[in-house]
């Protein structure tokens, strides 16, 4: 199994263009492994926790202020928001997980729509922070809007979604010039998204098997899953190398600089084969084998020590929740399979070195935090200023510098005091929020809901600050924790009671 130690060795080799300094400063950002959700010990079912000390130790200490119901319902709209001046609303923010929090399967959580409209009308800052991926952020907005019965151009939704691979938007242009292998559930879709992010040379496994039919001598999926392909970039070839161990690499040989697992792949066999081939290669030239592999005098027994491409995984979720009664495998399951093969190939001598995005990685929380800090459009509406949507791409580069494409954002951070993460997955949502301590001192608190993958009544693998029935109760709890006297009924206008 990979370990945080192995990860830190990875980080020490990161080029500056991928934000190495920012990444190195993070602690234990790569989990050792995913694991099954829902432990076996009994977890006491909590009652409604508002105004009480929760079973998980969170104490609500502030006396609530009364907020008129019309200010908390979407019915009041912007006029209500403009009258609200609670400090809590300007320096408190929310990060919502989506799947299992705002909807279950195809069904929106009752009251979630009204709640979102209400906090938007109040000018509160929030993002949707999901480990989902493989689709463009706008597509995720559309699917969320459909399930919640909202319009996908509502300001309460648009411009707020951060999917697992969204942080790649902020990567430096020099990185986006590199040749990357992209795979996922729909590699061609992933490539198109990557191009929209600014990547110039994205290659899919389908490109490779159509460029060299000896690379993977099975054609079961060649005309279906892998039917969409493009010529290799810059006239490169995937078949010009004949001797895997020769140091004389032809000039037209394809070299891959990075491997990006965009989301959960469908053809594990091909993808594990190709990723393996690149991780054992000489400097990422497909069809070569490094002479350093297995060299006990080198770190990691010589594996991944010869300029092979970096492996980036968009998230490590082992499971995800569908309408099927048993949780389904996610991208983390693919990584576990890859680790297993890697262990066999290296005879257990080497750890698989890779970088992970998505919750619970601090990298992703840092990205979400920066988005919230720069979100002055909504906060401005409280003070009567014009409401402005977020720019796209988001304002922060991966190395922490300002982006040259900041749209409406003036580069100013608008301080936060507290952010509430509302999630259904203790292993990602709760773990990430509990472990995240941004440098500006903002407190991140965790709220676990019962509507998703976590099974109520079991001990969560990572304890939240509070357990609530659903996302509406989560926001009610958070607002009461900020001293605002609000109920589920006033927050939703009765729409989610
Ligand atoms: Mg979820």
Automatic annotation (TrEMBL):
Span list, region Disordered: 383-413
Superkingdom of origin organism: Eukaryota
Pfam families in the cross-refs: Hydrolase_6 (PF13344), Hydrolase_like (PF13242)
Gene3D superfamilies (UniProt xref): HAD superfamily/HAD-like (3.40.50.1000)
Entry-linked SUPFAM superfamilies: HAD-like
Record-linked PANTHER family: CDP-DIACYLGLYCEROL--GLYCEROL-3-PHOSPHATE 3-PHOSPHATIDYLTRANSFERASE-RELATED, SUPERFAMILY HYDROLASE, PUTATIVE (AFU_ORTHOLOGUE AFUA_2G02580)-RELATED
Protein's name according to its UniProt entry: HAD-superfamily hydrolase, subfamily IIA, CECR5
């Amino acid at each position: 199994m990979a370990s945080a130690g192995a990860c830190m060795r990875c980080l020490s080799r990161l080029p500056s263009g991928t934000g190495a300094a920012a990444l190195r400063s993070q602690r234990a950002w790569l989990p050792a492994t995913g694991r099954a959700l829902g432990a076996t010990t009994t977890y006491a079912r909590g009652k409604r926790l508002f105004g009480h000390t929760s079973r998980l130790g969170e104490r609500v200490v502030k006396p609530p202020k009364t907020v008129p119901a019309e200010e908390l319902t979407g019915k009041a709209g912007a006029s209500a928001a403009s009258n609200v001046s609670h400090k809590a609303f300007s320096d408190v923010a929310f990060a919502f997980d989506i799947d299992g929090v705002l909807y279950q399967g195809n069904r929106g959580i009752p009251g979630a729509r009204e709640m979102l409209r209400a906090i938007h009308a109040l000018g509160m800052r929030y993002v949707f922070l999901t480990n989902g991926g493989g689709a463009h952020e706008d597509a995720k907005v559309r699917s969320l809007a459909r399930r919640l019965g909202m319009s996908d151009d509502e300001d309460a939704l648009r411009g707020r979604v951060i999917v697992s691979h969204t942080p790649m938007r902020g990567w430096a242009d020099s990185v986006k010039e590199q040749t990357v292998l992209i795979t996922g559930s729909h590699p061609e879709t992933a490539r198109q998204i990557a191009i929209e992010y600014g990547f110039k040379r994205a290659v899919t496994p389908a490109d490779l098997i159509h460029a060299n039919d000896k690379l993977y001598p099975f054609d079961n999926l060649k005309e279906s899953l892998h039917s969409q392909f493009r010529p290799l970039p810059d006239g490169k070839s995937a078949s010009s190398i004949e001797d895997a161990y020769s140091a004389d690499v032809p000039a037209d040989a394809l070299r891959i600089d990075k491997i990006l697992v965009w989301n959960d792949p469908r053809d594990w066999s091909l993808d594990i084969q190709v990723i393996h081939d690149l991780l054992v290669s000489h400097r990422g030239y497909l069809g070569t084998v490094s002479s350093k592999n297995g060299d006990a005098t080198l770190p990691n027994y010589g594996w991944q020590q010869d300029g092979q491409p970096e492996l980036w995984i968009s998230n490590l979720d082992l499971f995800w929740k569908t309408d099927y009664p048993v949780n389904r495998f996610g991208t983390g399951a693919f990584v576990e399979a890859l680790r297993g093969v890697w262990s066999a190939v290296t005879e257990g001598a080497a750890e698989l070195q890779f970088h992970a995005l998505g919750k619970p990685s601090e990298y992703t929380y840092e990205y979400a935090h920066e988005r919230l800090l720069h979100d002055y459009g909504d906060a401005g509406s409280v003070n009567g200023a014009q409401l402005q949507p977020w720019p796209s791409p988001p304002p922060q580069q991966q190395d922490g510098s300002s982006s040259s494409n900041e749209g409406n954002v003036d580069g100013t951070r608008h301080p936060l005091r507290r952010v509430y993460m509302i999630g259904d997955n203790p292993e990602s949502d709760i773990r990430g929020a509990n472990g995240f301590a941004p440098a500006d001192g903002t407190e991140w608190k965790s709220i676990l809901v019962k509507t998703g993958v976590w099974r109520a009544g079991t001990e969560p693998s990572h304890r939240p600050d509070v357990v609530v029935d659903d996302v509406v109760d989560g926001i009610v709890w958070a607002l009461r924790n900020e001293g605002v006297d609000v109920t589920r009924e006033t927050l939703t206008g009765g729409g989610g009671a």
